[in-house]
């Protein structure tokens, strides 16, 4: 497999966690989203993903983009360890939380949107994340065990950790979100979340390395 990604991309991080959890080795092709006006805009990368976004994964003779679609494919073809519960209600809760983050929070504060916001970008990102986290904190009070849904790591957790990292980067006050904070801390103790961390990638700048 070949993963096209960027060390700081939270969507790329989701896929790196999934690959690590499932023990899938891969080659990384770094796509720097800020250098050269954004390497994702090159003709070469447009041929990989016409949406000009990371991640993209070449695997089993196909090229997939969109992090959750990639994770669903990995789950369908390499089901161990399981990232979607077998119980239909828990499975729906996992998908709900993953979509809440992947559709309801992350796109509103991604690089493309922040460029449009100019000087107000930090305030905008903080507001988008805070409003999303207020809802997520409430949801997790009903679903959480050790992790987002019960005591097994799921696709929801793969979305949570990178989003908390974004929140910390934009200096969001995490005080009102004790459940999110507790789950995030527990997940960061797991090896798959550590090896996939943005501070430990081949394309991580020296000053940001762990």
From TrEMBL:
Q: Recall the GO molecular function terms of this protein's record.
A: glutathione transferase activity; maleylacetoacetate isomerase activity
Protein name as catalogued: Maleylacetoacetate isomerase
Mainly localized where?
A: cytoplasm
Pathway listed: Amino-acid degradation; L-phenylalanine degradation; acetoacetate and fumarate from L-phenylalanine: step 5/6
Residues in domain GST N-terminal?
1-82
Location comes to: Cytoplasm
Q: Which cofactor does it need?
A: glutathione
The reaction(s) catalysed by this protein are: 4-maleylacetoacetate = 4-fumarylacetoacetate; RX + glutathione = an S-substituted glutathione + a halide anion + H(+)
Identify the species of origin.
Anhinga anhinga
The GST C-terminal domain is annotated at: 87-206
Q: What are its E.C. numbers?
A: 2.5.1.18, 5.2.1.2
What the record says about family reads:
Belongs to the GST superfamily. Zeta family.
Q: Which UniProt keywords apply?
A: Cytoplasm, Isomerase, Phenylalanine catabolism, Transferase, Tyrosine catabolism
Q: Which GO terms describe its biological process?
A: glutathione metabolic process; L-phenylalanine catabolic process; L-tyrosine catabolic process
Q: Which GO terms describe its cellular component?
A: mitochondrion
């Amino acid at each position: 497999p070949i993963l096209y990604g960027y060390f700081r991309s939270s969507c790329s991080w989701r896929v790196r966690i999934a690959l690590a959890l499932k023990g899938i080795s891969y080659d990384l092709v770094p796509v720097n989203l800020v250098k050269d006006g954004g390497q994702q805009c090159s003709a070469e990368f447009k041929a990989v993903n016409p949406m000009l976004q990371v991640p993209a994964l070449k695997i089993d003779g196909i090229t997939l983009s969109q992090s959750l679609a990639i994770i669903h494919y990995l789950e369908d073809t390499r089901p161990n360890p399981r990232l979607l519960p077998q119980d239909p209600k828990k499975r729906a809760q996992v998908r709900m939380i993953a979509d809440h983050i992947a559709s309801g929070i992350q796109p509103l504060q991604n690089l493309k949107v922040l460029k449009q916001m100019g000087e107000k970008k930090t305030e905008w990102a903080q507001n988008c994340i805070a409003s999303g986290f207020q809802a997520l904190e409430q949801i997790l009070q009903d679903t959480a065990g050790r992790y987002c849904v019960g005591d097994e790591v799921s696709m929801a957790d793969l979305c949570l950790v990178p989003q908390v990292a974004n929140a910390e980067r934009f200096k969001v006050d995490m005080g009102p979100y004790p459940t999110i904070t507790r789950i995030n801390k527990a997940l960061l103790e797991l090896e798959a979340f550590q090896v996939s961390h943005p501070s430990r990638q081949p394309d991580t700048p020296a000053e940001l390395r762990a």
